[in-house]
Amino acid sequence: MSSTQLLVNTLATFIQIYSVLIIIRVLLTWFPSIDWYNQPFAALSQITDPYLNLFRSIIPPLGGIDISPILAILLLNLAGSLVGGLSGSPTMGF
């Protein structure tokens, strides 16, 4: 395995893990009793919120529903597909 393939595979794996973390973050918002200042939720929030805030600034919540994570996950899947295409095999797929 060349260093380029290793880099591409590492990036594809990172994108997959980050997508899963965002999905977990979004699902946990359904539970209002979660204290986002306590671990492990604070760490999850610190990891995912900077990326999600980019999309929240583009698409504000509509009627109390935040749909910006959908765009964020779609963009991550697109990036994962592009990176997977570089390595020769699709790596994304839920």
Automatic annotation (TrEMBL):
Signal sequence region: none
Domain of life: Bacteria
One GO location term (cellular component): membrane
Keywords: Membrane, Transmembrane, Transmembrane helix
InterPro entries in the cross-refs: CCB3/YggT (IPR003425)
Residue spans crossing the bilayer: 7-31, 67-86
One Pfam family, short name: CCB3_YggT
Family to which this protein belongs: Belongs to the YggT family.
Entry protein name: YggT family protein
Lineage, top ranks: Bacteria, Bacillati, Cyanobacteriota, Cyanophyceae, Nostocales
